[in-house]
Amino acid sequence: MPIIRIEGNKISKKKKREYFKEITEITAKYMDVPIDAVTIVYSIADHENIGTGGVLLSDKLKEGKYKKLEK
Is 3 in contact with 14 (CB distance < 8 Å)? Predict the structure, then answer.
């Protein structure tokens, strides 16, 4: 039974449904398992807990270096 763990920004429930469906279908196809065997765990990564280039993402957002993601 494949378990897929994803960390990302918050997305709408509609987009999450579509995303889970596509990931599930691809995983089932390539791992040759039934769709019901695929489990996805989606965690929302907070900007205070992400750093790139040694700088917090929340600081980069304040500086205008990144576009703020949907919340």
Answer: no
In a domain, 37, yes or no: yes
CATH number of the domain within which 17 lies: 3.30.429.10
Domain that holds residue 22: 3-46
Span 11-66, pLDDT tens digits: 999 999 999 999 999 999 999 999 999 999 999 988 888 888 999 988 988 888 77
Q: How many domains does the chain have?
A: 1
For 46, residues 6+ apart whose C-beta sits below 8 A from its C-beta are none
